[in-house]
Structure formats: structure tokens, C-alpha cells
Amino acid sequence: MQYLHLSDEELTRQIISGSHLHAFGELFDRYLLKIYNKCLIFVELPTKAEDLTYNIFMRAFINLKEKDHITNFRMWLYGITYEVCLEYAQIDYKQNNNAYWEFNEIEENRVKVFHCNAEEQLLTLEADQLKKVLKKLHPEDRLILLMKYQDSTDFSIIAKHLNINDSDVQANLSRALERAVAIYQKLINSYKTNEQVKIAKSL
Q1: Taking the chain, what is the end-to-end CA distance rounded to the nearest angstrom?
Q2: In the CATH scheme, what is the code of domain 1-95?
Q3: For 91-143, what is each residue's pLDDT tens digit?
Q4: Which mean pLDDT values do the consecutive 10-residue runs of the chain (203 residues) have?
Q5: I want to staple 23 with a disulfide (CB 3.0 to 4.6 A). Which of 9, 11, 141, 192 is the partner?
Q6: Are the C-beta atoms of 176 and 68 separated by less than 8 Å?
Q7: What DSSP state is assigned to residue 125?
Q8: Domain assignments of the chain as residue spans, ordered by start
Q9: Which residues have C-beta within 8 Å of that of residue 37, sequence separation ≥ 6?
Q10: What single DSSP character describes residue 67?
């Protein structure tokens, strides 16, 4: 209870000083669900998301004790989250035999939606629709969309995570948006086709 009224920054200062390790438990409680939900976007199994979540907090705790100070714990923790999730998702993506062909198909469809307002379309999707779209995207596309629209991350930080120049972030973001819209349109068309088949069979 003594930690509930403290800010993230006050808690991190206590952890760094080494005198109040229980303060990390308060940060863990505050961010557990948020980190878990981010992990779920990059993995299929809830149990794996749980494993990644605990690995993230372990890495955060170890790294935190080596810092002099943290000015924004939330963004710092999210940075570790994306680092861990991207590492896992990239390996998983490369091992997916269908990923290469799916990406080519998505890229072909992206060209078709090039002139649409991809950002506006994406932001109007419902949560369950958006989750399905993100699952189909390349891990780096997922990362840049989440960092930009969920966390409002600066382009310089996004560039660092993706190992690209700051000037390339906008172009990568635009392509990620277009791929997301292309995937959504394919999902909608598949849904319509399945419904038409069901209706035809019922006649």
C-alpha cells in the first residue's frame, strides 16, 4: 500500500538505489496486463505471451538496476517489450513456410490500395478486426504501427528499434498502413465469399 501513491519515476528511483526492491512489484502490477496484451499481438499462444511477459519484466528489472535514472519508465518498458517481441516474432516468421508467399500476396494487394487513405481506414477498424489484421502483418510492420498509433512514439525511437534512418520511418509507416488495409480488404472479401457459399448451400 505504501507504494500506490508513488509515480513510476519515484518507484524507479527507489529500485535503482537498491533500498526498496518491493517497489518493482508495484510497477509489475501496474503494467502486467498492458505488456501481456502487447505480447499477444506478436504470438499465437497465450502461454507464450505469458512467458514473454515475464521475460520482459525480468530483463527490465536487471537493466533497471544498472541505470542511473529513468525519465519515462512506461516508454522505457515498452521499448524492452518491443525488443523482446520483435526478436521472437522475426524468428517465428522465418520458420513459417507460408509467410513468404503471404507477404508477396499482401505486397501485390498493397499496390492496389496505394492511393487510398490507409491511415483513416485503419483507425476506423474495430478492435477485433484490427487484431486479425496485425496478426497477418510482418513483425516489423506490427511494431511500427503499434509504436506510432498506440504509444505515440517519436520517429527517432522507432528508427532505433527497426535499425533504419529517421528519414525512412515515414515511408516504412506508409507501407505498413497500406499492407494493413490490403489484408483487411482480403479478410472482408474472404468473409463475403464464405457467406455467399453458405447461402448457396442453404438454397
Answers
A1: 64
A2: 1.10.1740.10
A3: 887 777 556 557 777 777 776 665 567 788 888 888 888 888 888 888 999 99
A4: 78 80 87 95 91 95 80 91 91 70 70 69 83 87 92 92 92 90 79 48 49
A5: 11
A6: no
A7: S
A8: 1-95, 97-203
A9: none
A10: -
CATH number of 97-203: 1.10.10.10
Residue with cell 516489423: 140
Going by C-alpha positions, the residue among 21, 42, 73, 80 that lies closest to residue 50 is 42
How far from chain centre, in Å, is Cα 173?
Answer: 13
Residue 184 is predicted with a pLDDT of 86
Please return the burial class of 118, using the count of CB atoms within 10 Å of its CB with bins 0-12, 13-18 and 19+: buried
Which pairs with CB-CB distance under 8 Å and at least 24 residues apart come from 100-107?
102/136, 103/138, 106/136, 106/137, 106/179, 106/182, 106/183, 106/186, 107/179
* Orientation of helix 73-94 relative to helix 155-162, angle to 10°: 30
Element housing 161 (H / E): helix 155-162
- The span from the CA of 184 to the CA of 139, in Å, is 16
**Cβ contact 172:162 at 8 Å:** yes
